[in-house]
Amino acid sequence: QSALTQPASVSGSPGQTITMSCTGTSSDIGSYQLVSWYQQHPGKAPRLIIYEVNKRPSGLSNRFSGSKSGNTASLTISGLQAEDESVYHCCTYAGRSSWLFGGGTRLTVL
Amino acid sequence: EVQLVESGGGVIQTGGSLRLSCAASAFSISTNHMSWVRQTPGEGLRWVSIIYKGSYIYYADSVGGRFTVSRDSSTNTLYLQMDSLRVEDTAVYYCARVSAEYFDLWGQGTLVTVSS
Known about the structure:
Order of helices and strands of chain B: EEEEEEEEEEE
Number of helices of chain B: 0
Largest sheet of chain B: 7 strands, mixed
Oligomer: heterodimer
Strand content of chain B: over 45%
Helix content of chain B: under 10%
Structural class of chain B: mainly beta
Structural class of chain A: mainly beta
């Protein structure tokens, strides 16, 4: 199984809305509604921000949203803030008790 | 406070063994599914293994036959025994709690460096 494909970087200005993609195959992302997203600041552990494609953990800002179409999942961050600058990882359950991650996308807030 | 704390990382030569620990606080690892995930600068995050609360265990193909996950309920600690280590096993290793099919709590990670 190959890793999911994410763009290496995206950027946006404060207040803007950005969307980043995560592409898999019909055997992983396309087969399950089990995509999750993680935010990781430098030197820190990943933090869950989206699960089951579009659900947010309790207390997480509604500026973060997720979606999926076919074999591609997306993370959208609206009203960009400086604190959103981070690396974002996508992940999907891939069947047979295994998971796939993407390579991570670095978000720069200009 | 609900948290996971890993330890046991270090520098080891190719072919050697290392055991990582993950101590859980404020919840029981025996009634939760637990995983190990590793991260390399070049490849990002990679899932390594899972131990279900019912004790079923699965491994990624890259580590199967070399790594063994276990848990000690009395100390609420998760372990990853890593044998026949390779240079490509060099990574930060995280333990994570698994809720349904996502990772809802992560430790701070422990660095394993395998040198040739």
